[in-house]
Every structure is written in structure tokens, then in C-alpha cells.
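Course exercise 7: structure representation. Students receive a sequence record and must write out the corresponding structure in C-alpha cell form. The form below is the worked example handed out in class, using MFS transporter (110 residues). Read each field label carefully; the graders check that inputs and outputs are placed in the correct fields and that the protein name is recorded exactly as given.

STUDENT ID: A-19
EXERCISE PROTEIN: MFS transporter
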Amino acid sequence: MEATGYELGSGLGIALFGVFMASVYANTIELPSSLTPALGSQAARSISDSIVVAQGLATHQADALIRAAKAAFSTTHSILLTTAATLIALLSVVVFLMLGRHPGKAGTNA
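STUDENT ANSWER:
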């Protein structure tokens, strides 16, 4: 039961943070104006899709797209790490408060 719970938590965490990261990336990437809407839509999905799109562009367009993808990925990564740290801190406070209410043994003098 413990292993199943651990695997379920890992899978859900990866899925939720993956969706969160993809959403933030799509909202933070500043695509070059010369990109067609179809290519822009594909490039906004992920950094790997941005690289695939860049491989089919002229050098100056590809460089601009790669710079935008790197900047968006860096921003996304920072936001994800800050969100994870905040969730862990909040969980720590909740656990601390819940354990503070639990009646434990008072210190004993041996």
C-alpha cells in the first residue's frame, strides 16, 4: 500500500508540475514577430518544440527564437522552483501546527 501511494504521488506530482510548467512556458515566451501563427503555436508548446521550429528557419530568425525559448525556459524554471519551495514551506507549517496539537510525552528526567 505504501509503495502504491508513493508511486501515485510521484506520478501526480510529475503530471501536475509538467502541465504547470508547459502553461507557464507558453505564457512567458516572447515569440519573434516574423513567425507565422502556426509555427508560433508549435514553438510555444515547449523548449524542444521551439528548437524543432528553429531548425527550419533562417539563421537570424532561428537565433531570435532560441534566445526567446531560453529566456522563457529560465523564467519558467524559476517560477516552478519558487512554487515548489512555497508549497513545501506551507506543508511544513501545516505539519508543525498539526504536530503541536498532538499530545506527546512531556520531557522526563532520568
